């Protein structure tokens, strides 16, 4: 579904991604783990066209993304849940959800998906007329994920969904991530610092260090890998 081939991405003269290659197949949950500053978020920004690669190629369903604007990439079926949530704080929960469906014209489908969101996250149904900025951190993360789902993506990009959340809320969020994958058949690319939880959620994983992919394997194998256990699992 998504193929990243030898991608090099820069911020000015600083190289953030160094020839990375990643493949994501339809229906998979793939995780990218690594320390702060490793280049994980830049990888997502390169996919979305926000920080275009200087060289290499990124293809989605056989079409190159390098000549596409971010809104065109969303229209192709890729939605991102950014780090730090970045909901619209002065819009209500329902208005935030409607913004996620901005490019869609199927009003009946939008209404069905909105009700599906309220089934996934009953607290959002209770707070549908409440301003997004007044929600708790966990509720805002639920809203950010829900807003992305409203675009009905084929590929969902999640950037640090556990960041700053209480452990119980994190477990709830990750249960929903699994549910979105299995029920909606949505392919998911999960960038996450909580390596233990990410590797227990995904099918395959990539390890990134200093802008380069250093390991790629099944999550089962990565959980048993001594270097991964020492560097990321505290074992």
TrEMBL record:
UniProt keywords, alphabetically: Amino-acid transport, ATP-binding, Nucleotide-binding, Transport
CDD domains: ABC_TM1139_LivF_branched
SMART domains recorded: AAA
Superkingdom field: Bacteria
Cleavable signal peptide: none
Xref: Pfam families: ABC_tran
Ranges for domain ABC transporter: 2-235
GO terms of molecular function: ATP binding; ATP hydrolysis activity; branched-chain amino acid transmembrane transporter activity
SUPFAM superfamilies given in the database record: P-loop containing nucleoside triphosphate hydrolases
UniProt GO BP: L-amino acid transport
Sequence similarity: Belongs to the ABC transporter superfamily.
Name of the featured protein: ABC transporter related protein
